[in-house]
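Morning!

This is the sequence you dropped in the shared folder:
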Amino acid sequence: EAMACGSIVLASDIKGFREYVVNEHNGFLADLSSPELIINNIKKIAKSQQIINVRKNALKTAKKLDIDLIANMYIDIYKNNNIKSD
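The structure's back. Tokens below.
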């Protein structure tokens, strides 16, 4: 949601977020286990020379995750795998 709004994403560096956020490409991944680490990472982001590119890449990523595109992808998967619904 943040990416779709053009906001900068700062997410915990864990598996679920790594599926969508590529560090310093379309967002930022970091250890966010303490308030001090969160503050330090926000300061690092604020100083980043790549922030405009990160924002552009985030918007591109969000467009790929549009609900209509995802829904059609699942429909195709079901059709191609001959999965029958009840």
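Headline: The helical segments are 15-18, 35-47, 51-64, 67-80.

More detail when I'm at my desk.
O.
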